[in-house]
């Protein structure tokens, strides 16, 4: 299935296809008709503007593809990539029906109101409002959960297996609810695959949680204490968030690798995630940071939007890192407070025992109990500090790194285009020289080369425009998601603080009469 | 530096109009603190009814030591001396802050400076309170309040020329203490016929140790609390920076949350400060006072041993029929001393218990009330903030 991503689409019968395409854009590939299911799979990949397909850039195709891209991005993000190779009429029928039910029809109809604000070349310009108007249609009705970590095997070959459960009404899956067992390297393998396929397009691919040799070794060795339990829980939660982000992303959800990951019972062991994932990811980040330094000089983009956004990303990443460090410190201090409170409570209990005035003795024991309860509160607080706040920040620091990688990809595409332009220029100069020197046979070759490079320049320019669109779209989507995430998580955190304070009040209210009863 | 504060009492004292002492003012100079001791009295031996003098820490110590060394007071619990004012830690922090000024933003610097100044002020208030408590205890004690040195301390408006102990004297003190504790162990080993004192001995030993433990553990707990509050402060600052980068939705959100954390952190800091005042200080005080009570028992034990030795000497003298009169007088003296001490000691220890129970009651009630007040305050802040944030989104 996945292999078909590179196959050539059937030749499209001319301009008339533009309409069915645009209509179809309104539809949602996933709202199921059986016909659809049958056809949907191979198509999933096609949205990824494959430079591989550039082999025969039938103008029609590339045009169609990009207009599809534009259209589908206008409407629901669900409609990704399904359409470039169409068995048309069939689809046209289906699409008409579906587009009725689709809330995005409003978006589609407002397509007429486009105001070109981007300087994109061949494609239909889109307005910024259009992109930003995309409703939160991430109501895919798709839920994934990662649960039940289990240790499989023993000794150094042991590993943790996690249950990945999916509940969905999307028709592209075989069942509505299903679950599989996966291990950490499987998650990393998924990331690698997605990275290879999508990062070149400027997609923001959610990074997986980090490898941890120390943590895993402890688990393998069988150290059954709270730190390994914490580690496993932390990892499980991180894997869950990772998967949720992947399935939230409209293009990634379409990727057959993702579906395979969720559905297939036995996954071939992802090799090379050992060395690749940590190092590979690191490489990407390093390259990104290198490129960033180059970036500020190089891109003389007419569009300052990208520069501004990159700067924002960088400064935000800095602040988040700072914040994360402080939250970490808070977690540690709270854990310390927890320990010290427990110790103090015991000490108080002892003092209460020694005290020979009965009422005071009882009050002191009660105080010891209150402090004990405080300890529990502090512990829960520290956990929520960590799991809600610190992990959120860590996730976003990694995600911002991925965003920067995205911008770098765009930068690379631009560079490639520029280089092609300069090569073309050189070829033209060679041709001029040859003309002057009058060497007909070499001239022919030169002319061929010029044509070739002219094609390349056009192609690369289109690529650049395409990636710019994608990056911009991805970035806006990311910002929205980030805003939502931060708000919901922080509110959740504050609510946990709230509950903690309520119990605080309760405990001290219970103690007060005891203290007053001392005589 | 005049300031208004309620009398901080870790002990419940009956004050009466005949003699009222308090510290009405205090000044912190580079190395020392100058306390203005203010007295109001209807006692005839003072020249005026109301007067003030300026005293330093060393003079308090001098007064305390003069009580300890006075044989007449052997049968009383000598109110424990106030600890030396210690601003070293705070001063060090202020210095570090000054050095690190370049590495932080102006807001951060001002904020931290305010924090440290508040901390300095808190320590200052505490030391004043502790010196005051000492004086009040003396003034409330039926016998000690009549002490000449005490009156001089209160009235003599010139420098008492008391210098702090030099190195040699401090060494002497150290050795005295070593000898005393060794002796104390021996004395403690002697079983007392009197049930009351035997019970008190066992009780005080255990109580003192446990209070010591509780005191140090409470200190550690409160320090962690302060550290957590400091972290929340930094979180608030960073969130503020994040919030001011843009005017998007999420930035406004950050600003609101930053504001919330600013407020909750102030409350957290107050919780730590109140726990310090009501719990930690209470335990520290009773650590010192239980030591003073132990010292009393030691003195009585010593007197008992002396008495028993005198008895033995008398028997020996009678047997040998040599120096009998001398032995008899010696025995009489020891007997009187012992009985005098025993009598007052009993009362002192009973009073100690009453005072202790009252002080604990007062402080625990206040602690609980303050904890409740702060928790409710925090709760309200959180509730309103969560309400606003949820309403916005």
From TrEMBL, chain A:
Keywords: Acetylation, Cell projection, Endosome, Golgi apparatus, Lipid-binding, Membrane, Phosphoprotein, Protein transport, Transport. InterPro entries: PX_dom, Sorting_nexin_N, Vps5_C. Residues 25-34, 129-139 have a biased composition (Acidic residues). One of its GO terms (molecular function) is phosphatidylinositol binding. Residues 1-86, 101-139 are annotated as: Disordered. Residues 64-83, 116-127 have a biased composition (Polar residues). Residues 140-269 form the PX domain. Its main location: other. It comes from the Eukaryota. One of its GO terms (cellular component) is cytosol. It is a peripheral membrane protein. Pfam families: PX, Sorting_nexin, Vps5. It is found in: Cell projection, Lamellipodium; Early endosome membrane; Golgi apparatus, trans-Golgi network membrane. One of its GO terms (biological process) is early endosome to Golgi transport. Belongs to the sorting nexin family. This is Sorting nexin-1.
UniProtKB/TrEMBL annotation, chain B:
The keyword Transport applies. One of its GO terms (molecular function) is phosphatidylinositol binding. GO terms for cellular component: cytosol; endosome. Keywords: Protein transport, Transport. GO terms for biological process: protein transport; retrograde transport, endosome to Golgi. It comes from the Eukaryota. PROSITE patterns: PX. Coiled coil: none annotated. InterPro entries: AH/BAR_dom_sf (IPR027267), PX_dom (IPR001683), PX_dom_sf (IPR036871), SNX5/SNX6/SNX32 (IPR014637), Vps5_C (IPR015404). Belongs to the sorting nexin family. This is Sorting nexin. It comes from Oncorhynchus tshawytscha (Chinook salmon). The lineage of its organism: Eukaryota, Metazoa, Chordata, Craniata, Vertebrata.
